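Q: Second attempt. The first request was missing the SMILES, so the protein and flavin mononucleotide are both included now.
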Amino acid sequence: MNAREMAGLLDLAAPPKWGTARVLAAARNVEDLRRAFLRRVPRAVADFVDGGAEDEVTLRRNREAFARVVLTPRQFQGVAATDLRTELFGCPSSLPVALAPCGAIRVVHAEGELAVARAAAAAGVIYTVPSMGSTTLEEIARAVPPGTPQWFQLYLWRDRGLTRDLVVRAREAGYRAMVVTLDTPVSGARERDIANGMNIPPKLTRAAALDAARHPGWWWRFIQSAPPSFANVTDRTPSAADTTTMQYVAEQFDPGITWDDLSTVLDAWDGPVIAKGVLCAADAVRAVDAGATGIIVSNHGGRQLDRAPATFDVLASVLEAVGDRAEVLLDSGVRRGGDVAAAVALGARGCLVGRPYLYGLGAGGEAGVARMLELLSGELARTLTLMGVATPGELDASFLGAVAEHQL
Ligand SMILES: Cc1cc2nc3c(=O)[nH]c(=O)nc-3n(C[C@H](O)[C@H](O)[C@H](O)COP(=O)(O)O)c2cc1C
Ligand SMILES: CC(C)CC(=O)C(=O)O
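A: Got both inputs this time. The predicted holo structure:
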C-alpha cells in the first residue's frame, strides 16, 4: 500500500463532511470552492482540473500578474447601485464574464456540461460548449430555455471532414459564436495526468476502489451514469484496448495547422468567429486578417506552452494591435471580481473563467456552478462600488496604478 492509499484509509475515520448546501453557502470565494472540490473528487480528477503543463510556471504566472495589479479608487462617487450587464459578441450577458470551454467534465461531476449549461442560463451568463465535451452539443443546446445564447468551441482536427461536421452541427443547434482554439497543435505535457495515468473514462484500479471510501458521492454518481467519453465524436472513438481515449484525441490534434485552415470554419459559419489562444500583437492581427471578429487572450490556463506569458501582461499590446477591429476577451487565472475589473479597465470587453466553475461543479453540481457565479458577480459589484463606478463600462486605464519597482 502506498502513501496515498494509506491516506485514503485513514480518511475513513474523519468526521462526516458538511452537506453540500452548507458547504456552498459557507464558501466566501472561488478558493473556498476549490477546497471543497478537492475534498470531493478523486485525486486524479483534481489534478486533471488543477494541473498545468510541465513545471506549471505559466499556471502560477497568471495569478502573479493579477496580484501585481493596482486598482486606484475614486471616492464619494454616489454609487448607490451597480449594473454589471453587458453584451458579448451581440449576446446579452448579466456580467462581463463567460464560461470557458472545458472538455470531458463529466469526470468532475456526472451531470457535467448539462449542469454547467443550466447554471449559466439561469444566471444569464454565456457558456462556451467544448467540442471535446462529454455530452453532445445537441443535448447541451436542448438543456437550456430556447433563445439562451451559447457559444461553441472548435478544435481544427486533423480530420477536416469531422471538423466541418461539427461546425454544421453547431450551426444547426443554434450556437451563436464559434470559438476556435489556436494553442493546441499538440497537447501540453500535463505531468500530473501522466503520473496518475489519467484517462477518459478513468480506469477502475485498486487505488480507485480505495478512493471510493474517501469520495463516496463522486463514485456513487460515477457508477450510476454512463462513463464519460468524448460524446461528439464517440462513433469515431476506437474501441481497441491498446489505444486509450486520451491517446486517440491527442492524435487528432494537427501540428501542421496554419492560418489558412481557418477557412474550414469560415466557409460553413456565418456568425462571429473568436480566436482563442492569442498571446501577442502579431497573432492578434493575423487572426483578424484571417476573418476573426473576436480574440480571446488565453494561455489555456497554463495547460499548453509552459513559460508562455501571463495573459494580463500581454493584454495591452493585443488591444493596441487590433484597435476596434475585434472585441477582446481574456482568460487564464481569473479568480476574483477584481481580476475582471482590472482586465476591463485595461480595455478587455470581459473575461472567461475555466477552473472556477469546475470547482463549483465538483463541490456541488449545478448549485456549485451557480454559487461560483454568485460569488464572482458579488465581488465584481463590490469592487466597482469601492472604485467609485456603477458599471464596468466606466472603467478605463486611469483606474490602474503602477506598482513601484522595489515592491515587485
Ligand atoms: C479541465 C479543463 C479542460 C479544458 N478543456 C478545454 C477544451 O476542451 N478546449 C479549450 O479550448 N480549452 C480548454 N481548457 C482551457 C479553458 O478553456 C480556459 O482557457 C482555461 O481554463 C482558463 O484558465 P482558468 O482555468 O485559470 O480560468 C480546459 C481547461 C481545463 C481546466
Ligand atoms: C478534454 C481534455 C483533454 C481537454 C483539456 O484538458 C484541455 O484542453 O486542457
